[in-house]
Amino acid sequence: MGRNGKLSRILNHKKIENEEVFKMYTTFLRRCRKKLSLKQEQVANGICTVSYYCRIENNQVICDEEYLVHFFKNLNIDFYSLQEGKNYVFFEEILKTYLEHDFEKGFKIIEDALNNNFYADEEIKLMILYHDVCSQDFVNVQAQLARFKEDPNIFNDNENSFFLFTQALYYYMIKDINQALDNIDSIISNNRTSLICRNAAISLMLDIFVYQNLAGNFAYFFSQLNNNDFFAVYSAVGLHHLAQKVFFEINEYNYVEQIEKLKALRDLEDKEDLKLYINWLLIKIYIQYEEFNQAFSLLSSFETIDSKVIYYVGQLYVLTKNDKYLEAFNNLYDSYSFNKYESQYHSVCTAIRYYAEKEFSSSSIILKDLLKEDEIEKFDMIANILNANFYLNLSLEIGRYKECVVSIQSLLSLKGTFIK
Predict the structure, then answer these.
(1) CB atoms within 10 A of CB 295
(2) What's the CA gap between 74 and 71, in Å, rounded?
(3) For 5-50, how does the pLDDT look when each residue is reduced to its tens digit (9 = 90+)?
(4) Residue 391: partners with Cβ closer than 8 Å, 6 or more residues away
(5) What are phi and psi of 400, to 5 degrees?
(6) Which residues neighbour 173 within 8 Å (Cβ) at sequence distance 6 or greater?
(7) pLDDT digits (tens, 9 = 90+) for 286-322
(8) How large is the angle between the packed helices 19-35 and 157-173, nearest 10 degrees?
């Protein structure tokens, strides 16, 4: 019968040209076989030798499409229907929607995929994990990650890159920055990572560098994205990163001009989440250059109030002692319910409340804990500077001059310190 068995006489010799698509089918084939508790010889029976089947299943050789038709037939699966359901490298399509800043489109792709019954359990779990991360359903995310840790070798290369990216996105959202960067490094240092996944990882890393105020790191990786067709293909995220670049180029001589550039970029954007992001960049610039009324005006224009908005209104009061800002802060603080993922902002807001009531010692105790090394990364660099400045004011109020020196040293060590 030879290597190809009886099937060799009827093959149409049609190859699947895309290696990643072929791996997707063989991964699904192996998972379905194991789920049915079948041995390799049972699936290969009458089609090819067991050794040749083993090479196919392990992606050591790309076989003709007809082999897959018959392998799946032995598993009671119609390969041609499977092709219609899995006609692209699925997780790359999800990453494209991330780069397009179109999460709803990504959710729709996942919903359609879950309804066509042509995805293995591992693929479904990854889809649900990504959906829950983007929806910020962190309780479910934590439970899923704990289950994945029990069996870390269940993914192929493409899935593993997607898993690492999704996990990095989650770590960034909960401000575990070191873990996020470790995952991103694993993605971009792997030469088997697809270009789309690599670009998505770099895009996320640029957001982290802005969060940490690392201008040099940002410039290097921004140039990597700018060297291909990235901005032409993904215009929305391109505008997002261009706004970040403008933010990093601001100095005391050009900040008025740069603010106008950011406003122009914001007006070009039609996605509300990206408009909101540029507004946050503007708020930080206004605070840095003591344009406090402009910062407050933007904060007051937000339709959705969250802990970050309340925090920045409170910091405006700390910086200026303006009763207008204090009144707005108190109203927001009293009407908002902080959740457990907003604990760091809640703590500072509570410290500001004590500060306004002249309970300086209580305020100082809270803030001192937040300036510890393991808490620093939970705030972006601008917020860390504001927190250190706040603690300096508190230390002066209660006459703890040694702590004033510590606060000043902390301020000087923070990149981009602007407090005068």
Answers:
(1) 24
(2) 5
(3) 555 444 455 677 667 778 778 888 887 888 789 999 999 998 999 9
(4) 364, 367, 368, 371, 403, 407, 410
(5) -95, 85
(6) 133, 136, 138
(7) 999 999 999 999 999 999 999 999 999 999 999 999 9
(8) 90
